């Protein structure tokens, strides 16, 4: 058989009808005994199902892409752990893209939807540009965005209320008697950076505390960048008694520097992160952090995409996951 076995030869080898072979190889319901016979015959004959041909016929690839800024960030790993089982249960494979938060790469991913290599896309951009919005509007396959997009954008959207999360964190620090609260943020041209900057100012005002630019450092959302930002702030103002950090990676970098400077946490400086990643509970001391529901956002995004694949004409849905403050050792002094 130079061209390999066919469903006819499989049917003969298994002792079943051609129709039964077709049903089994296309994943349609059939009797368990018939399925076992067909699959055993296919294996013995070396039959390889042609997924490409099936996808061309059905116009479905049974693959979903997830594009994120940094595949090494625990936030996205938490999302993947929820997205994958939801999609797998529905018969889809998950394809991962790490864009390094490069807008051109994210636009290219959106543009490539026209090539039909996947049936849909979940994307979590930290910058949302006019080009993003235009490509989303004209996307050739369903798209779900994890993150904040302008109200009225015609796309299924899962978002966290990071502003409320920052207010929870600053309010907690204020309740613990902290009055010189520093802020280590990510880039202000990103959606989370801008939102958390505005929320920090609002939270200070609610607590009756002045906004002091000398207590604010802007860097990036990485551990080393957090360390550098903490070092700059401490060298400028050593009297800071708390640090609000825009994510857990920044907070871990800050903890590294505080130890180098001989600052006790939380006795001298209390520290709060955001995202409540696995690293928060594993750090020393354990890190108080604001959960933005990464797992819940991932699961909701997968469910929204499946719903869109079933009904492409329904109105866009917006899901907002509320934040939760998880208090640990980095803000709790013990006697």
UniProtKB/TrEMBL annotation:
All copies of domain HTH lacI-type, residue ranges: 5-58
Transmembrane domains' residue ranges: none
Annotated SUPFAM superfamilies: lambda repressor-like DNA-binding domains (SSF47413), Periplasmic binding protein-like I (SSF53822)
Stored InterPro entries: HTH_LacI, LacI/GalR-like_sensor, Lambda_DNA-bd_dom_sf, Peripla_BP_I
Keywords: DNA-binding, Transcription, Transcription regulation
Secretion signal, residue range per the UniProt entry: none
Transcription regulation as UniProt keyword: yes
GO molecular function: DNA-binding transcription factor activity; transcription cis-regulatory region binding
PANTHER family membership: HTH-TYPE TRANSCRIPTIONAL REGULATOR GALS (PTHR30146:SF109), LACI-RELATED TRANSCRIPTIONAL REPRESSOR (PTHR30146)
Protein name as it appears in the record: LacI family transcriptional regulator
């Amino acid at each position: 058989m130079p061209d390999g076995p066919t469903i006819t030869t499989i049917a003969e080898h298994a002792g079943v009808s051609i129709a039964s072979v077709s049903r089994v190889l296309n994943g349609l319901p059939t009797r368990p005994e018939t399925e076992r016979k067909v699959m055993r015959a296919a294996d013995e004959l070396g039959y390889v199902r042609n997924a490409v041909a099936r996808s061309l016929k059905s116009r479905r690839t049974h693959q979903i892409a997830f594009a994120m800024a940094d595949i090494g960030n625990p936030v996205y790993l938490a999302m993947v752990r929820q997205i994958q089982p939801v999609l797998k249960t529905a018969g889809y494979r998950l394809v991962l893209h790490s864009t390094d938060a490069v807008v051109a790469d994210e636009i290219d991913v959106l543009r490539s939807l026209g090539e039909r290599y996947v049936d849909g896309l979940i994307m979590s951009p930290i910058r949302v540009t006019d080009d993003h919005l235009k490509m989303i509007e004209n996307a050739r396959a369903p798209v779900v965005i994890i993150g904040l997009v302008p109200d009225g954008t015609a796309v299924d959207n899962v978002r966290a209320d990071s502003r409320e999360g920052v207010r929870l964190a600053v309010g907690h620090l204020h309740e613990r008697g902290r009055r010189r609260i520093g802020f280590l943020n990510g880039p202000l041209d990103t959606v989370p950076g801008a939102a958390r900057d505005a929320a920090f100012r609002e939270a200070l005002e609610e607590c009756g505390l002045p906004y002091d630019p000398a207590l604010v450092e802007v860097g990036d959302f990485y551990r080393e960048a957090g360390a550098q930002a903490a070092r700059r702030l401490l060298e400028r103002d050593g009297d800071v008694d708390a640090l609000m950090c825009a994510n857990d990676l920044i907070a871990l970098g800050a903890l590294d520097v505080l130890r180098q400077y001989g600052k006790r946490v939380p006795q001298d400086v209390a520290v709060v992160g955001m995202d409540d990643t696995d690293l928060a509970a594993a750090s020393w001391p354990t890190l108080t952090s604001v959960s933005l529901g990464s797992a819940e956002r991932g699961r909701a995004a997968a469910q929204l995409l499946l719903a869109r694949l079933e009904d492409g004409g329904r109105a866009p849905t917006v899901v907002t996951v509320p934040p939760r403050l998880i208090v640990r050792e980095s803000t709790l002094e013990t006697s």
